[in-house]
């Protein structure tokens, strides 16, 4: 998912992305990645050719951009470990840093990061009308005129992305992304796909297990998305999760030396409410309510960013919106083609469609579970309103014969709530669910020693933790 910390990592690693192109129909031709600094100086780059339409394997091909850090212990190499990014719209720059946090894995595995189709350097989806940041800046609509204006702007952006995506607009979903993974597995020379899949990447991994159960190796689903939920259900879950995380942010503020939001949770939340109300009618310099909500909602899933968010909120409460606005603008500036890819892939995956009147009605339900952010989240339903129903998914009917799959969920995850992660585990007959008592989106590679220890052990020797394991 689209968090400020992950976008900051993306921007910092942009210099690592240029990759060489292999000969057509060959396996990866690895060459050193330009400008890869130590300790990533072993990283190599290549491209893997896959069918644009897997129903027509002999037809048009696209190139999937891949990077590899070869296993240091070649004598005891376990194969490749493919890290599937989230989003949708996240690329390999969000997953390469995992290697720095897991040196034991890089000893034994070739660490594989890649840009999924439509993302980064893999036939990137772009919008002919670059209006995505304007949509991200929108204040939540209140009046019929506001709703009409939001509908016009959002659907204009979505339709421009659909036009810019071309044939990819109907071929960018989870099923084809999973089929790409099997081509990649074969190109890497692996009999089984070993993978760590985060967030939306979990939907791709579950789809892979459905389509290719005999090829599943060691699979970790890290705060996975749920491939059986509608777009509306996913967004409603996220709206409720953001509201819960805001309360956690208020509690965190009270643990700091000086909390500028208030002296207890209720006071802190009232301060944020007052700020958002004031910004709706009177921006604080460059800071509007839309930008403030963008900064808040993208930081809430990433607790390491909370101190900076609190600084921005504290300054905004005194009338200086510069810091919080800059945090939001940095997100937009570093997003690459994330917004376009995210919109197109979601619309390709999800069959449900909602016109303006439906969304106005739905916004009331969203506001009931999230008074502060629900209306803003509900407007995302407009992105797919003019699209035909998405067909990018396959039915998930169970995966007999798949080896144990480790599923990780945080109790305080706003984007992959634990009840949904538990449902994902239920889709996999062999799943082992590990519950981590913590805030934030993502359990593995986020500094939780207990989670990392169990997950590393599973990936290195194939032994998952017992059912019912919790951390810490």
From TrEMBL:
Question: In which organism is this protein found?
Answer: Amycolatopsis suaedae
Which family is this protein grouped under? Belongs to the peptidase S33 family.
Enumerate the spans annotated as AB hydrolase-1 domain. Answer: 81-446
Q: Where is the signal peptide?
A: 1-20
What lineage does UniProt assign to this protein's organism? Answer: Bacteria, Bacillati, Actinomycetota, Actinomycetes, Pseudonocardiales
SUPFAM superfamilies for this protein? alpha/beta-Hydrolases
Record protein name field: Alpha/beta hydrolase
Q: Which GO terms describe its molecular function?
A: hydrolase activity
Lineage top rank: taxon: Bacteria
């Amino acid at each position: 998912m689209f968090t400020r910390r992950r976008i900051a990592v993306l921007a910092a690693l942009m210099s690592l992305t240029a990759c060489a192109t292999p000969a057509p129909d060959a396996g990866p031709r690895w060459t050193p990645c330009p400008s890869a600094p130590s300790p990533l100086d072993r990283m190599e780059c290549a491209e893997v050719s896959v069918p644009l339409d897997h129903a027509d394997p002999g037809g048009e091909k696209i190139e999937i951009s891949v990077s590899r850090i070869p296993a240091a212990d070649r004598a005891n190499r376990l194969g490749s470990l493919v890290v599937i990014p989230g989003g949708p719209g996240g690329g390999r720059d969000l997953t390469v840093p995992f290697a720095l946090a897991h040196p034991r894995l890089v000893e034994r595995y070739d660490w594989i990061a890649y840009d999924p189709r439509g993302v980064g350097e893999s036939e990137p989806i772009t919008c002919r009308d670059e209006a995505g940041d304007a949509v991200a800046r929108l204040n939540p609509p209140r009046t019929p005129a506001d709703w009409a204006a939001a509908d016009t702007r959002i659907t204009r952006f979505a339709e421009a992305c659909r036009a810019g995506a071309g044939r990819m607009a109907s071929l960018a979903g989870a099923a084809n992304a999973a089929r790409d993974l099997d081509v990649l597995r074969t190109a890497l020379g692996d009999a089984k796909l070993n993978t760590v899949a985060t967030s939306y990447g979990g939907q791709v991994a579950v789809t892979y297990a459905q389509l290719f159960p005999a090829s599943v190796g060691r699979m970790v689903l890290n705060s996975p998305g749920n491939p059986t939920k509608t777009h509306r259900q996913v967004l409603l879950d996220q709206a409720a999760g953001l509201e819960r995380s805001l309360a956690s942010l208020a509690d965190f503020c009270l643990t700091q030396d000086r909390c500028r939001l208030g002296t207890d949770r209720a006071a802190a939340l009232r301060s944020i409410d007052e700020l958002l109300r004031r910004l709706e009618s009177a921006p604080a310099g460059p800071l509007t309510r839309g930008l403030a909500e963008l900064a808040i909602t993208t930081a809430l899933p990433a607790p390491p960013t909370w101190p900076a968010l609190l600084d921005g909120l504290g300054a905004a409460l005194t009338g200086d919106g510069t810091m919080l606005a800059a945090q939001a603008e940095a997100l937009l500036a570093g997003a690459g083609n994330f917004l376009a890819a995210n919109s197109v892939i979601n619309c390709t995956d999800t069959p449900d469609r909602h016109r303006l009147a439906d969304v106005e009605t739905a916004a009331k339900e969203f506001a009931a579970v999230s008074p502060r952010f629900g209306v803003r989240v509900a407007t995302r339903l407009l992105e797919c309103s003019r699209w035909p129903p998405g067909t990018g998914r396959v039915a998930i009917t169970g995966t007999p014969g798949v080896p144990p799959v480790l599923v990780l969920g945080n109790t305080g995850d706003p984007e992959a709530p634990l009840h949904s992660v538990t449902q994902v585990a239920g889709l996999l007959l062999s799943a082992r669910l590990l519950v981590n008592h913590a805030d934030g989106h993502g359990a593995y590679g986020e500094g939780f020693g207990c989670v990392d220890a169990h997950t590393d052990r599973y990936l290195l020797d194939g032994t998952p933790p017992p059912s019912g394991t919790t951390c810490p």
